[in-house]
Structure formats: C-alpha cells, structure tokens
Design brief:
alpha/beta
C-alpha cells in the first residue's frame, strides 16, 4: 500500500502480515511531487522518472525479502561547465528484513570472537519495527547509490587536466599498473608502521626510511578519519601528534566532527598548525553494516571523505581505525579496484622461521574462488616487491 510519509521523499509501505511465501510482484512509480522531493534530497537538477519492479516474499519465518530493479532518469549539473547532464539509472538490488531483535540480524563471528566481514557478500538483514516495511525508501536508497558523484558532459575535460587514456599504464605512477601499485604500497608500508608497537625501535628510528632516496624529503599527506575506532578522536588525535613528532615530513588532512574534535585538537597545537581540518556531517559506527554505512555515509561521513581525499589527490594515503567492513566497502566504491581485480584484500605481514611473509586475504573475503585467490597472489607479490624486503618466488609454470 502506498502511504505518504513526511520524513522520506518516496514511500511505499508494505504490510508484513499480508506477505506469504509466494512472491508478490509490485510496480511502484514516483509521482510529480515525489520526483521533486527526490531531486532536493539527492541535490540534483531534476528527477524526471523513478520506477521499480519488486518481488516481495516471506523470508524464513518472520523475515521479508524485497528483490527488484530500479530505473530512473535524472538531470545533474556538469562539474566542469555546470550545463545540464542527463543520466540513466538501472540497478538490481535485494534486501532482507527481519523483526527488531532477531538473531538473524546479528553479526557472525569466528572462534576467536572476531567479526566475519565480507563487503562484497550479502548484507546482514535490515530490521523493522511493527508490521510495516517501507519498500519505497529502499528503492530510493539504492537509486541514490547509483548516482554519478562527478557528472561530466560528453566531450568536456577539465582545463589543464589530461585524462588517463590507459595507454601509458606500463609507466604509470598511479595504482592502475603493477608498477604504480608497488610505488603506492611502499608509501603505505611506511604509514602502517605507526601502529606497530613491537617494531617501534626499528622503524621509528633511522631505519624507518625504507623507500627510494628520491622519495626522501617529500611531504607525505595523510588523510585521517578522526572518528575511527572505539574511542575516536580521544585516541586518534594523540596518535597523529606522536607520528608528527617522530616524522616531521608528514602532514595531515583531518576529517571529524568539529564539536568532538576541537577540544582534543586544542591540546596539540603543533598538530593543529600542520593539519587541515574538515568538519563532516556524521561518523560511521563500529557496529554499522557496510551497506548501511555506504547508504548513510556516502559523500558526508568522515570515513568516506578521508578516502575520497586520495581519489581527488588531496592526500597520498587514507588511514582509518574504524569499521573494517564499511571501510572496505567505501574504498571499493570510491576508489574502485584495478582492472580485472574483483575484490580488494586485507594484507598482513606474518613472521616465519625464514623471515616475514605477506598473507592475504585476512578478513575482507569469507569465501574466494580460484581466480580471486590468483588475484590475491598477484597483489601480494606486488606488495612484497614494493617493500623491497621479501623474496618473491616466481614461476613460469
């Protein structure tokens, strides 16, 4: 049943008690007033059309599965010329809902008590209260995720900016080539040592500079999510201040909630002076599901904006101690993976009797097929070569 709600631009309420195991097909379409409200919510010039074909059915005993396809036509402003740009959205989606308090909505863990996170796998079920689910709100959320954040009119380029054609990938310095990946991983390796207490004496001293000499003297710009971790700025800001004391050749681009961060930043004037602070609208919770974090925090959260700084070139690397699943999902959505790489991976350096080994994946993927395992091996080999510390065995067989 359709029922207007003041707090959402597009609404289609479904009575849970009326849903059976047999899927019910429903077509929903936004009217003129709803299209106008969606345009304001999405901050676009106009939404000319929005419709979805849904299949709604009972899931297990008390849950509901909503599966469908949403299509929309929108008009945005070109980021270069501000001229109108027409875009089409065509997305398939699936979402499961269970009653609030259901055990099916709890995050699974392993024997060690660690959460099992898979940003590419199915999300945990959403919860609902009462006897209604707003399918229209779900449709609008998935449509919003498909909107191009940087629309550009065809044939238009930024003045003074050369778009990458892909022809120079062999010599590229970006992460789109193996050589670029290795160069970037060298930088990332230096930064990850900040949190490795057992190796402080080794890496925080003169031996810290493991990179090439030509990189020495360059200021490394670190985009930092101040709201990450269980204690947020209370821990992250002092940690950043320590890193700056030990390594004056770094600078920070900080993303946080001003009211919570300002009092802590005031205690570290040196860090505040050498950092650029950006006030954000929200922070991703540690227990938030990746899909929820992506829908709620895209463009406006401290985590998203810290990652986006790498994409825009405002930072060399992004660091967050926050929700791992959300971080992986946002990074993949914002930065994308290299060509032919399906899934990102989390890498760790493990000690062995013969030295150190890079192990991946250690948490981003619950199940991986043969091709993905091969991708992980290639990425691990690139990381090992980037560190210039691990022997990489190659085989032509």
């Amino acid at each position: 049943m359709k029922n207007a709600r003041d707090d959402v631009p597009f609404s289609y309420q479904v009575k849970v008690g009326h849903i059976s195991a047999n899927p019910v097909e429903v077509h929903v379409e936004a009217d003129t007033s709803e299209l106008k409200a969606l345009a304001e919510t999405w901050n676009v010039v106009s939404v000319d059309d929005l419709s979805a074909d849904l299949q709604i059915a009972r899931w297990k005993r008390d849950g509901v599965r909503i599966k469908g396809r949403v299509q929309a036509k929108i008009v945005q402003s070109c980021v270069v010329t501000l001229e109108p740009v027409e875009s089409a959205i065509d997305e398939s989606f699936e979402q499961i809902f269970v009653p609030e308090g259901s055990k099916l909505a709890r995050q699974a863990g392993n024997d060690a008590g660690e959460m099992l996170l898979d940003p590419d796998g199915p999300d945990l079920p959403e919860t609902f209260v009462g006897d209604t689910i707003d399918a229209g709100e779900v449709v609008a959320e998935f449509a919003a995720l498909a909107i191009d954040p940087y629309p550009r009119k065809e044939g238009i380029e930024f003045d003074g900016h050369i778009e990458d054609s892909g022809e120079g990938d062999k010599k590229a310095l970006g992460f789109r080539s193996p050589q670029g990946l290795e160069k970037g991983l060298k930088l990332l390796w230096h930064l990850t040592q900040f949190s490795c207490k057992r190796r402080q004496n080794r890496y925080f001293g003169r031996n810290f500079a493991l990179g090439e000499k030509k990189d020495q003297g360059r200021v490394i710009r670190i985009s930092l999510d101040l709201m990450g971790g269980d204690f947020g700025p209370q821990v992250v800001i002092p940690g950043a201040a320590k890193a700056l004391d030990r390594h004056p050749d770094i600078s920070f681009v900080l993303y946080g909630l001003k009211e919570q961060c300002d009092p802590v930043l005031a205690k570290f004037p040196k860090l505040k002076e050498k950092s650029l602070f950006h006030d954000c609208e929200l922070a991703v919770a540690m227990d938030e599901k990746p899909s929820q974090a992506l829908r709620r925090g895209r463009y406006i959260s401290t985590m998203w904006r810290s990652i986006e700084a790498v994409k825009t070139g405002d930072a060399d690397v992004a660091v967050s101690a926050g929700n791992t699943g959300a971080l992986m999902a946002m990074a993949k959505f914002c930065l994308r993976t290299m060509a032919n790489i399906e899934r990102p991976a989390i890498a760790a350096i493990w000690p062995t009797l013969k030295g150190e080994s890079i192990v991946l994946d250690v948490g981003a993927t619950i199940g991986a097929d043969a091709q993905q395992l091969m991708d992980f091996a290639l990425m691990g080999g690139a990381m090992a070569r980037a560190l210039s510390r691990l022997n990489v065995r190659r085989s032509d067989s």
